[in-house]
């Protein structure tokens, strides 16, 4: 864990695990967002990092933004508008970079992921959860609306499901999240960390150039019309077959 207690970073065999600090809530304060974004940027430029795992250990994966921090800025001359603007712009920049990261990102979720905490999970490529995990967009219950968290969530589940989450502010269990496509799999708590570590290790051992280019292309073509998606993907597929790291796998008659 860093000296300020915000973020732990452990790199092992190509897998960088980022552990959120300030337990138990692991809130996305302005400083936490900066620490996460700095770690992500460094990881994206580090050839020794092949996979990123984000972990908020315990009963709360991440409780979202630090509402106490926001509350303290209500005493500012502008009632906190400048701080809140900076906070949400910084958070959106982090989530964009996480979503566009060319290296696989995995969320390890043991407890509740709520508001911007759910946004953080949804921005990752993959998410694995324990049976105790819970998921929520609670803004409407506090007189607001989880508008920016819904951006990330809407990219991984259907329109009706995310609309229900955002309009009701209800808390959903792991079975619902799996059925909705919000998470990839539910693992027993005792097996969750091992499964994620094994998967991350396997991905880190892959031929990295086509994996990164393929993931980047996948993330881009999902937002394109079908014709444009094929136009983007076809030349990338050609390069996969020309990559020297995979030629030995070709069939030989």
From TrEMBL:
Keywords: Fatty acid metabolism, Lipid metabolism, Transit peptide. GO terms for molecular function: hydro-lyase activity. One of its GO terms (biological process) is fatty acid metabolic process. It holds the Pfam family ECH_1. Transmembrane segments: none annotated. CDD domains: crotonase-like (cd06558). InterPro entries: ClpP/crotonase-like_dom_sf, Enoyl-CoA_hydra/iso, Mitochondrial_ECH-domain. SUPFAM superfamilies: ClpP/crotonase. This is Enoyl-CoA hydratase/isomerase family protein.
């Amino acid at each position: 864990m860093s000296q300020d207690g915000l973020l732990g970073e452990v790199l092992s065999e190509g897998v960088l695990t980022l552990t959120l600090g300030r337990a138990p809530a692991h809130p996305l304060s302005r400083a936490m967002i900066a620490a996460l974004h700095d770690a992500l940027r460094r990881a994206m430029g580090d050839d020794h990092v092949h996979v990123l795992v984000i972990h908020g250990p315990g009963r709360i994966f991440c409780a979202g933004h630090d509402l106490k921090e926001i509350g303290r800025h209500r005493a500012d001359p502008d009632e906190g508008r400048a701080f809140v603007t900076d906070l949400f712009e910084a958070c959106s920049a982090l989530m964009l970079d996480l979503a566009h990261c060319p290296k696989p990102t995995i969320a390890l979720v043991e407890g509740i992921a709520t508001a911007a905490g759910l946004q953080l999970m949804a921005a990752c490529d993959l998410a694995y959860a324990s049976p105790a995990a819970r998921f929520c967009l609670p803004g409407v219950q506090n007189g607001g609306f989880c508008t920016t968290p819904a951006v990330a969530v809407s990219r991984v589940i259907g329109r009706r499901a995310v609309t229900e989450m955002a309009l009701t502010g209800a808390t959903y269990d792991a079975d619902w999240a799996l059925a909705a496509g919000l998470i990839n799999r539910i693992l027993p708590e005792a097996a969750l960390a091992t499964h994620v570590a094994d998967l991350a290790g396997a991905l880190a051992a892959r031929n990295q150039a086509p994996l990164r280019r393929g993931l980047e292309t996948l993330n881009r073509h999902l937002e394109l019309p079908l014709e444009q998606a094929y136009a983007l993907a076809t030349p990338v597929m050609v390069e996969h077959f020309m990559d020297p790291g995979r030629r030995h796998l070709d069939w030989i008659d």
